[in-house]
Amino acid sequence: MNIRIQTLTTRLEEMGLSFMAAGLESFLEEEARRDSSLLEMISRLVETEYIPRKERAIRSRLKLSGIPVKKRLEDFDLSWLKGGLSPGKFAELKTLSFVERKENVVLLGASGLGKTHLMSALAYEACVAGYTAYFISSTNLMETLQHARAQNRLKRKLTWLKKPHLLVIDEVGYENYTAEQANMFFQLVNARYENGSVVITTNKPFGKWAEIMADEAIATATLDRLLHHAHIISLKGDSYRMKDRLKTGVVDSLGL
Predict the structure, then answer these.
(1) Domains recognised in the chain with CATH numbers
(2) pTM of the model
C-alpha cells in the first residue's frame, strides 16, 4: 500500500471513520478512472461512511425498540376496514408528523382489527426515520413499574420511559388496573405529556376508562393529558386476522 494511503487510512481510523478507512484504497482506484470534480469525489467518499453508519443506527434503534414482530404500513390492508381510518389519515400517520409535534395516537377497536399491526408499523417507521421508539404491552408495563416501585426506582424508570420519541403501549384496558397501577399509568402519561408521543391500543371506549383505572378522577386526569394532543382512530370492521380465511371460505366451512 502507498505510504500516503496508509497514513491517511490510519488517520481515518483514529477519527473513527472506519468505513472510509476500510474502503479508501479501492475508492481511490475507482475514482482514478472517473472524470469527477473534487466536490463529487468528496461527496462519494463521505457516502461510504454515512450510508453504513445510518443502516447500523437503524438496526440499533430497532433492536432497542422491543418491537415483537417487524410490521410495515404498506403491508396493512386498509381496504379491509369498514371505517375509522381513511386513506388520507393513514397517509398522514405515515409521515410521522405527529411524532415531530409530540402528539399521541389512540387506536380504538375490538380485537383482531389490526391495531397492534398499525402500532408496530408506526414504531418501525419511526426507527427507520431516525426517531427512537419503545414497544411494551400494558401488562408488561405494569409489571415493570411495580418492580421499579418495589425497588424505590419508580422515578428513575419513569424518566427512562420519557426518553424515547415514541412510546407504544399495547392492549390498554384488556385487564383492569388496580388503584396503584392506575396511578403509575397516570404518572407515565403525565411525564410524557407534551414531551413525547404515545401510541396506545385499547378495546375500551373512553366512557369505560373509569372501570379500567379503578378511579374516575384518575381516569379523567389521564384522558385529559392523553387526548389533549391526540389522533383518535376508532377502527371498525371484521377481524383482520381472519380476513384471508374469510376470503377463501374456510371460516364459513367451519361454521364460524
Answers:
(1) 3-59 (no CATH), 73-243 (3.40.50.300)
(2) 0.80
Q: Which residues lie below 8 Å from residue 75, measured CB to CB, with a gap of 6+? A: 117, 121
The owner of cell 408496530 is 120
pLDDT of residue 43: 87
**194 exposure class (CB count in 10 Å sphere: 0-12, 13-18, 19+):** exposed
Distance CA 50, CA 42 (A): 12
Whether 196 and 166 have beta carbons less than 8 Å apart is answered as yes
With a cut of 50, list the residues of the chain below it in pLDDT.
Answer: 248, 250-256
Give the Cα separation of 138 and 175 in Å (integer): 9
181 neighbors 149 (Cβ within 8 angstroms): no
Number of H helices, E strands in the chain: 13, 5
Give the mean pLDDT of the chain: 89
